[in-house]
Amino acid sequence: MTALLPRAAVRGRTPKAxxxxxxxxxxxxxFFIAPVLIGFAVFYLYPTIRGFWWSFTDYxxxxxxxxxxxxxxxxxxxxxxxxxxxxxxxxxxxVNVTTQTVLALLLAALMHRLTRSVMLRTTLLLPWLVPNVTxxxxxxxxxxxxxxxxxxxxxxxxxxxVGFFTSPALAIPTISIVNTWAFTGYTALLFYAGMLQxxxxxxxxxxxxxxxxxxxxxxxxxxxxxxxxALVLVVSLIGSFQIFDTVAVTTKGGPVNATRVIxxxxxxxxxxxxxxxxxATMAIVLVVILGVLTAVQLRLLRASESxxx
Length: 309
Description:
Blueprint: H1 7-10, H2 15-54, E1 57-58, E2 66-67, H3 71-77, H4 80-113, H5 118-129, H6 132-143, H7 149-156, H8 171-196, H9 200-208, H10 213-224, H11 226-241, H12 245-250, H13 262-271, H14 276-301
Antiparallel strand pairs: 1-2
């Protein structure tokens, strides 16, 4: 007889009471996430919609926006300085993402195979906790051509001073290395967390078969780390395209626009020349480019696939 009753009745409540409880749970959940939704709408969704509208206008903060259609988009596509800034940004992205990923993988592998010290992990994370403006100022003082400590050591050995931030050929690599120093520790911890999910039995079995550390890393660690690798590379790519603080503090786009990355060019158009509509258009174009690059990157890395069963 009990088997013929609904499960809710057997438990002492009706199906209608269960549905009412689920609705109440949804109300409670909505109450808790409401602050986040409000913050997202106010600080992200509304500015995005407004910026998209501005991209179709001629707006200078000194008057009302004037609708110009796709004129701004045509101007951006024909703007040589825009594409030069994109090229500068791309060169920074290549150096920064490559050095950061390689060093982070090395550090994570060393922590995973040699030591799992909490103190070491904390030390690696410290540079990431320092604000970007502070990082830029510290390295500006260290690498200054005339007063920097690094150039003091170089000249004390009888060598000429190096213009790390004043040489067009060295400025972008220098900024890339500075940000690599700041973010490598955080990236290494992401890789390290992914390595902890790999079963230790795989390493033991491969070691018994005579595999060395390099073979273990290339045949076990890297293949099973693919989802984390995809995440790190996508986040690093987007974050590298957003470089602004270090450039604004150290070189201000110089010398000779050698470090005028796309974010700094958008900033100049918006707050130096007051071309708000044109700056919004460049921001929209940048979002589209990043979306395409991210989709291609995820497809090539097969981010949704994992060999870890």
